Amino acid sequence: MYQTRRYSFPLKNTGSVTIRYRWECLDDALSSVSHLSLPVNEAGSIISEGGEVSPFTLDPLNGTIPPGEEAVFTLKYSPLDIRLAESVFKCQIPYLDESLEPLVLSVSGASQMPYCHFELEESDYLTSGRTEAKNTTRSRPLQSRMETTTRDVSLKVIEFNSCGIGVKQVRRFNIINPTSLTYDFTWTCEDRTTATSSSSSFKCLTSHGHITAGKKVEIAFEFIPTSLDTSESTWRFSIPSLSISTSFLLVGYAAEPAVNMDRAYLNFKAMLLGTQVKETVYMINNESTPYSFNIVESTLSSESTAKELKIEPLSGTVPPNDRVPLTISFKALREGEYNYNVQCNVKRKPTPVTLNIKAEGYSISVDVECDTEDGSTVMLTENKTAIRKIDMGTVQVNERSVRVLHILNNSRYSFEYSWSMNTHCRMLGGPDEELVCVTPTEGVVEAHQRSTCELTFNPKRPTTLKGCELLLKVKNGGLISLAMMGRAMEPMCAFSFTEHNFGYSFVSKQRSDLPPKEQKLIITNKDKKEVSIACHSPVLPHLKVFFESGVLAPGEQTEATIHFLPKEPKKYQETIWFEINGVTRKPVLIKGQGAEMKVEVANPSHKTVHLGALRVGQKTSKTVKLVNNSPMDVTCLVNILPSSQELVFQDNVLTVTPKKEITLLGGGGVCPVTVNFAPTTRLQHFTEEVLLESLGLAQPLFVVTGSCHGLEISLDSDHVPFGAVVMQSQSSRRILMYNKGDIGSKFVWDVAKCAQDFSIKPKEGYISAGMEVPFEITFHPKRVGQDIRYEDVRCTIEGGKPLSLTLTGMCIEQTPLKEVRHFTANVREKDEKQLPLPNKTNSTWLLHPVIAGEHWSGPDTLTIDPGKTGYYELTYHPLTMTSDSVKHQGSIFFPLPDGTGTLYNLLGTAEAPKPAGSVSQDIPCKTAHTEILHVKNWLRRPQRFRAVIESVRPEKLDRSVKLGGLDYIDVPALGKRDYRLNFYAYKEGTFVARVTFKNETTGEYLFYNVTFKATSPGIISTIDLSTPVRKSTSHRVTILNPLPTQVTFHTNVDVSDISMPSTFEVGAESDGLCSFEFLPLKPGDTLGKLTLSASELGVYQYELRLKAMPPAPEKPVRFMTTLGSSMTKNCKFVSFAKGRTEYACKVDATEFHVEKSVQAPSAGAGGSGTEVNLDVQFEPSHLGDTVSSLCISAPAGGDYVIPLYGHCLPPKPQGPFTIRAGSSINIPFKNVFHQSTQFVFQMDNPAFVVKANDVLKPKKTYHILIQYDAKQADPQVPKMGKLTVSCQQASNISPNIAWTYYLKGEPHDRHRGST
Q1: How far apart are CA 980 and CA 965, in angstroms?
Q2: Spatial contact of 997 and 934, defined as CB atoms under 8 Å apart
């Protein structure tokens, strides 16, 4: 009872398919057995009060076996009562060949009940060979028995473990009495007590006692080690009443505490005398209990009495599994080597912890040499007590004096140096001037070498180096002071001034030829030698210097002319530099200020002076005060230069007084100006500027307005020719009287003067202002005459000058018409024809043709040579259109010198007008365009035109195209106006229209043919978006739909990182919003184009400027495993690629392994991404931390960087691996290093055989073959062994690194009992 026996057996699948199995336990065959008497020295087991329970278990009960492989099953027998147990296990295998017998396993076992049972775990101390250790202290009888015979394997072993010496360890266990008897027990030590015996280390705290039937009692043993050796002691347990006893072996181990410093030695190397350094050393406690420590102070001293070495703290306690810092301070006080062996006592640690400390002290020796001006070298540090001086000599300002300095290192070690100046020298130079400088300012001088530096004296003004010191600082070597001497002088040149202020000067943006202000600068050489002078003046538009460079003899003078002409109203300050002898620069400061001429009216309401509306003969005047707000006086002339032609030709109508120049004092000087207006004729409303003229410039001061009302009546023609009229007939002509004045008037014609041949209707009447009156003049001759003429036919105007009219005509007898000339022209165009007239006489003809008809015109005279035929050019220029029934009629009569004449009847047809112009423009969609159309008035009176816009193609414009302008336009007589035609198209297309300007009163019109081609629109606007990679941002675009119906837009974008709906709708006559998302997958800047299109409204294009910033770091993944093992973790990332994507994976450290690629499914819609998983394996090749990065990238998905942190621990023991006697096993072992490595295999038990060493390829798995020698196998007792694998590579990592495998050699048959 209370024991378990195991039996293992294989089951092999010899087929070609995987089989499934399931074990079933049939009913047990149980039989009761009477109480058996067992030997007293049998091992005990666990007590149970269970009933009829099967003691057999089989593991595993079900599973699968691949083809050609086998499964190992373990059968356990664990009886809980006394009986003879039998059972049957049957293996169920589906589809097993019926011809084969089923697998049936019959098992049986018997159990016995012990008198007592010890609750102790089994120990392999006797079987593993640990008893052969050299440092084992045994009692003499036990030692004797071990040397002569082999120990009884039934001897029970109780082991103690102690960390350190003098530490009490107590081991407790229970003894169970499973019988119905009550008995007493005793513990007796069988060791012989000697001086060297270890029995004194062990003590039984329960040496005797009483155990009641069915109960248990606790036993305690105490172990206090006195050394680090293994201690053994033999004790006997006895039950006197039953005459039963058994032996126990007590084994105690004392291990030295793992408390040490993190290093065994510390080297401060070479140190300069007097310098102190500090280092930190850690006292490390790898145990689970605290330990106190104490530094032995006597080990901190050296040969000298001074304490160069200090350690803080000198004592303390190290917490469990922690460390305490020790600060070590060292200061070298002498030259030579230092060596310390510092000891630290740790409580319960038999040997002290030692730290070796080394150091070396040294000093620095420095000398400084200087090369003088004559080429010799002077040792400046030869006399340590004398003042060291460097003479820089006498130089002129801006000249340089250089000395070469040598720094000599007489020491064994290099040192660093740096140059500096004392405070007086730095202040003498000023904050922006380096009076004395050294190059280089710092450096390193190697042992027994020298370094060369240059000392430069470069004064910018007269000065002396008295009190200046040059300081050489040697790091850890002191300070060397060098006194400097030197002097700087300036050439003796006198300037008549070094600063001049021109004061205020007027500026003008209208003229650049204003006279500048001038000043002369006198330069005198007062030195005893010649000097050269050059001028370096800046090239500026407001400042010019006229100076010729040259050489001045002693006492000689020269001059520089300076012109100042400001260009802007601001302060000017410039510096003119004169260079003397090429080194000394003399500044001359020029100041001045530009000022605008600010002469204006004192009262702002006088900006416009209204003179009113006068009648002819009236006078008026207005006075305006002018104020000078300029900073300087202004002498000026106030005048009016009329722009109106009516005022230009009339003197003394509009004048300004005073007419002479006036002077306005600066800063508020005032002067009155009077404007006089005395009109003598009617003047239309005028606006004229009053100008201020000064310095050749004119600027407006104020504006005067006014007018003179009066009569201005005129006739549209002062000569009315009637041409030839047949006697007894009449002809009528119309003339117009215009009143362009401001008042109306009565008129009366003197008709009596011409009443014989002419009549005028109406002969009298009233004409209002701005109106016109038509007159019909009729020619009704009563006599034949070639020239019937009435000159100066007067029309009297009330209150105005009379008008005169000349009437002419010809009366001929009735003769048949010679012919009719036909003219055809587009209205307002011309048709010219030549009329032949032969001169068959011997004299020259000078003919005066008479033209009847307002639409025809020609030359006033025609000269025909004798015997020649002359041609008269007659022009038909209609201003109105004709109809099919009504044509223009007229005649032309040529009176000949012989009293006869030639008459032509004229008939004109005026057709519709030609286009006034054609316009063809390419306009991008979504762009407003205005086309200017010139509308011209061909009449002598104003016309109002109605603008009519007709679409030619297409016949009707929809609401996606806007074409229009004003409905009416007024054009003055014989003038023109610009008509603004507006065009806007939402979509592409060609639009042809006709724009007609029609006088609705007369029906006359002009028109333009307009063609607009709406081309593809450009970029409407630019959209800037920025966001980190894999973080989305959105934007909305607003679209206006002017149509009365809903419009569907289609979207298109050429950037794959933009997500948006393929279509969206905009309601009728409303604004619509289109939203899109920018989700970049790669960092960088991208330019793209967004296109929104609709068949009704065309295309909208937007430029996209996208910026993807680097992403935030991914979440790190951490690994921890032992050297020689590996750890695999799952890494996750979210893929936003829109299609199935293959990501490339790589790591930048050889300790991490990952698949070369991973497939990611499509992220789909929504922008949420798809999570992708991949495994990363960490297989370290060294202890400690390893940091790497997993880089995942794909062209379509972007880049991901996942930080990887790996921590490697020392390898852990493995096993035990079970080997049967006479057989072998293969233990897999992998070379985790990156190069081929020789490994050493060591066994601690000769019963196990393994190859001594072998060279393994990098990263390859090797199977270690281990054989269990059957000759050395014990048929009853299993043997234990330990395999240690080590290599030089692992020793370099840590001296204690090795791989340990425990082995267990099983006999062919094993029987174990209980006490």
Answers
A1: 6
A2: no
Residues 1119 and 1176: their CA atoms lie apart, in Å, by: 10
CA angle 80, 83, 87 (to 5 degrees): 90
DSSP character at residue 914:
P
636's tokens: 């000026």
Neighbours of 135 (CB within 10 A): 10
- Asked if residues 337 and 359 have their Cβ atoms less than 8 Å apart, the reply is yes
Question: How far is residue 61 CA from its own chain's centroid?
Answer: 65
Looking at this protein, which amino acid is placed at residue 550? G
Contact in structure between 1211 and 1186 (CB atoms under 8 Å): no
Amino acid at 1250: V
Question: What backbone torsions phi and psi does residue 397 show, to the nearest 5 degrees?
Answer: -60, 135
- Measured torsion, CA atoms of residues 1061, 1066, 1070, 1076, in degrees rounded to the nearest 10: 10
* CA pair distance 501, 917, nearest whole angstrom: 65
Instruction: Return the H-helix or E-strand segment holding 1291.
Output: helix 1288-1293
What does the chain come to in residues? 1315
Distance CA 640, CA 643 (A): 9
CA-to-CA distance for 574 and 591, rounded, in angstroms? 7
Cα 353 from Cα 346, distance rounded (Å): 7
State the pLDDT at residue 147.
42
Say if residue 1269 is exposed, middle or buried (CB neighbours under 10 Å; 0-12, 13-18, 19+): middle
Between strands 517-525 and 557-564, the pairing is antiparallel
Spatial separation of the C-alpha atoms in residues 110 and 112, rounded to whole Å: 7
Q: Strands, DSSP E only, in 27-102?
A: 29-32, 56-59, 62-65, 70-77, 83-92
With CA atoms as reference, report the closest residue to 574 among 543, 552, 528, 545. 543
Amino acid at 817: L
Note the pLDDT tens digit of each residue in 188-219.
998 876 544 555 788 999 989 999 988 899 99
Q: What is the pLDDT of residues 957-972, one digit of tens each?
A: 888 899 998 888 888 8
CA distances (Å), 1206 to each of 730, 1179, 1289, in order?
Answer: 128, 9, 20
Distance CA 758, CA 129 (A): 167
**Token pair belonging to 715:** 């006739």
Give which of 933, 989, 980, 936 is closest to 961, Cα–Cα: 989
Q: Model-level pTM? A: 0.35
* pLDDT confidence band for 1314 (50 / 70 / 90): very low
Amino acid 991: pLDDT: 93
CA distance 170 to 148: 32
Query: Which burial class, exposed, middle or buried, applies to 627 when counting CB atoms under 10 A from its CB (0-12, 13-18, 19+)?
Result: middle
Average pLDDT over residues 528-540: 81
Query: In the β-sheet with 70-77, what is the strand arrangement from edge to edge?
Result: 5-12, 70-77, 56-59
Write the Ramachandran bin of 828: left for phi over 0, alpha for psi from -120 to 50, otherwise beta: left
* pLDDT for position 1010: 95
> What is the distance between the alpha carbons of residues 197 and 137, in angstroms, rounded to a whole number?
7
Q: Strands 230-239, 136-137: parallel, antiparallel or unpaired by DSSP?
A: parallel
CA distance 961 to 1247: 105
Model confidence at 934, pLDDT cuts 50, 70, 90, reads very high
3-state helix, strand, coil in the chain (%, to 5): 5, 55, 40
1263 vs 648, residue with greater confidence: 1263
Check residue 131 and report its DSSP letter.
G
Q: What is the pLDDT of residue 253?
A: 84
Phi, psi dihedrals of residue 915, rounded to the nearest 5°: -60, 135
Alpha carbons 646 and 707: distance in angstroms, whole number:
11
303: confidence class by pLDDT, cuts 50, 70, 90:
low
CA separation (Å) from 897 to 721, 837, 840, 849? 19, 13, 12, 12
SS3 category, 77: strand
